[in-house]
Design goal:
This protein is an alpha/beta fold. It has 13 helices and 14 strands. Helix 9 crosses helix 10, helix 11 packs antiparallel against helix 12 and helix 12 packs antiparallel against helix 13.
Length: 328
């Protein structure tokens, strides 16, 4: 018996979303539509001057866990926050969406990471991100009991930059495998893969059962130009590879089987933020219920299609009826 169907490890970032005008961006020297990494002081100064907005838990893995919970899955999240206001809000929000978050808050070090999202009237999102405590996850921050008691472990590539975080990934994977559990990894970002290609290859080949990557990320991982070449390399490294291709849908490689999953139809594309996160949520929801890889991919495509039709990286519609209809 598992305590959770899925346990995720990722960046614990609080999203603060506010409506601003172009003059506010100009006054603060911000390039519209860009994502800029800032330090604690810069983030604090901008937070003090920006209009009131909404504050909610964020980060790629946390978004996947939110989608997994919305589908009805039992999930838990492991990430690092400080014992501050932002950390308290992050914890409360994760629990409110139905995902357990019991990682103890750090009593020292950088404050809780946050992403300040400034939305202008033309719907452009300008982001200023301070990673803070989130990026300082170490093996000592892992909950070995919770990992061992969860059906599948899911880890976010965005967190992979620091050597301590890389060690935490391999340690977590070893804990899961010793308990007979599955390990899944999302590559998250092609630039992150470029920075740590050898370490990522080792993680995928030696510790990963289910891999999530988009076309650019998987080609970067194996340093090839053709998607089919990358697909064949992935097939040799892990049991299942879920390779997303935007409007072309996804390809699921499972042993000798190759399944092409069409992108789910949409009425209007509004915001692609979170598409990969929700595809992973849908696929893992199906996988933890013993559903075959192709139909898991269909669930993932439905979850991704829902999130790209509105602003924000988490589902707003009730996904359960959509999934039930697709699996009928």
């Amino acid at each position: 018996m598992t305590e959770h169907d899925l346990i995720g490890i990722g960046n614990a970032l609080l999203d603060v979303v506010a409506q601003v005008d172009d003059a506010f961006l100009d006054a603060n020297g911000l390039a519209k539509g860009a994502m800029t990494l800032v330090d604690d002081a810069q983030s604090g100064a901008l937070y003090a001057t920006m209009p009131a907005g909404t504050e909610s838990s964020g980060g790629s893995c946390a978004n996947t866990m939110a989608g997994f919970a919305a589908l009805g899955g039992r999930g838990a999240f492991l990430g690092k926050v400080r014992d501050d206001q932002f950390g308290t809000v992050f914890r409360h929000d994760m629990r409110a969406i139905g995902c357990d978050f019991d990682s103890p808050a750090a009593a020292s070090g950088p404050s809780t990471g946050r992403c300040l999202v400034l939305v202008t009237p033309d719907a452009q999102r300008t982001m200023c991100t301070f990673l803070g405590a989130a990026s300082l996850l170490t093996p000592e921050d892992l909950d070995a009991t919770a990992i061992a008691a969860s059906g599948v472990l899911y880890m976010e590539g965005y967190l992979f930059d620091r050597p301590e975080a890389q060690k935490a990934f391999t340690t977590a994977a070893e804990i899961a495998h010793r308990a007979g559990r599955k390990v899944s990894v999302t590559l998250s970002d092609g630039f992150c893969v470029d920075r740590h290609r050898d370490a990522f290859r080792g993680l995928v080949a030696d510790h990963t059962d289910i891999l999530f990557a988009n076309e650019d990320e998987i080609c970067s991982l194996y340093e090839v130009d053709r998607f089919d070449d990358a697909l064949q390399r992935a097939r040799g490294d892990c049991a299942i590879a879920c390779l997303t291709r935007s409007e072309k849908g996804a390809v699921i490689v499972a042993g000798d089987e190759v399944h092409v999953v069409d992108a789910a139809p949409i009425d209007q594309l509004r915001d692609t933020t979170g598409a990969g996160d929700q595809f992973a949520a849908g696929f893992l929801y199906g996988h933890t219920r013993g559903i075959d890889p192709y139909r898991c991919g269909v669930i993932g495509a439905l979850a991704a299609a829902e999130v790209i039709q509105h602003y924000g990286a988490r589902p707003e519609a009730d996904l359960a009826p959509l999934v039930a209809a697709a699996l009928a």
